[in-house]
């Protein structure tokens, strides 16, 4: 009997020790689940990083917009997307690092009951803000690829989602954004310090959402004129960005890994891979544009500005480089700004939409906003130049649609350092004309091709999507680009 008692005592001791050891494996300092607010912050940064970065592994649109050129390795300047699989990098960043995290953040926040009554009241606004960023990301995917996974996207149980028609997706996004903006309660806050753009200011989020709705309406001008007009007019009625104080800027920090990606690309990398492109240097000089000095430095040891040839090797020491501000660690990551909003309003007026004001008034306001943002002087003198004055430049243009040339050129300048949106504007307005690349492997890119992995792993859906848009080539114009 004594023997059995000893065995039972030993077993109890082992069980007790085992339980104690298991408890040691629990990290009591870390949360068992990730808060929705943290996922939101991460997704916000991932979106800003992807839109801002100059890394040729992730985003080559500043090369496509011919703001910058490569010095030695010129594949990307010559439109090679496949070598570094850039379409997959963008696809993964938007779906996995942005949209998936936003989706999970919204689920968690919706399921959370906050002990603080004021925080509980902010739940609906948090979900609305998440929707605005998600719509921004989905719109970018449509504008970049065409047909995309949408109705079946983000479902971890469906690894082979179908691709939805791009126009159908875009119309649905417009509908959702309209509903979201109407539901956003600007009398209450949202994410507070977890929001690295607006610190939870819902009035500014509503203006950002309104400007996004305006842009999306304009994007459909050549394919669904009625919806484009009603959307643009509804956006203005809802409220849009009204000054540079409303800009949708992601706030970067002074130390890695939270610096502006351009700082990482140009400074922390220790590499000399990029110089100014001849296209923008020549245009700025021809127009006597003071923003030249805001964007670029003269060639070392001279007062001359010189851009690299498109697609050609360009020695770093012999060409202009971006200014210290452009490559600063804490330079803001711009997702949307006042200048772009005013240019969109100028386009809307030129297209006959009832958004208030004249095309010239919005055009002048846009250029003035750009000068203010870049701290450039003498905007009044600039606007008075014959080749800048809206009415004079319009009369001098030989383009089929003169306003597209006049607005498109100035919009492109104002979008400097925002490659993705500049590339979209170039494709929509067809101005300014981009120069041929020296050793181009394709025609000028009209879209990203679908990731190669989609061909191999989701072949049926990929094949149907490629056929629906025309063909999976960079030269294939998308549904919104009819001109």
Coarse shape: globular
CATH C-level: Mainly Alpha
Distance between the termini: 96 Å
Strand runs, count: 4
* H/I helix tally: 20
**SSE run:** HHHEHHHHHHEHEHHEHHHHHHHH
How many domains?
1
Q: Give the strand order, joined by hyphens, for the main sheet.
A: 1-3
Percent helix: 40-55%
Structural class: mainly alpha
Report the β-strand fraction as a percent range.
Answer: under 5%
**Mean pLDDT score, rounded?**
94
- What is the CATH architecture term? Alpha Horseshoe
Low-confidence stretches: 6-11, 13-19
Radius of gyration over all CA atoms, rounded: 25 Å
Biggest sheet features? 2 strands, antiparallel
Stated plainly, the CATH topology is called Serine Threonine Protein Phosphatase 5, Tetratricopeptide repeat
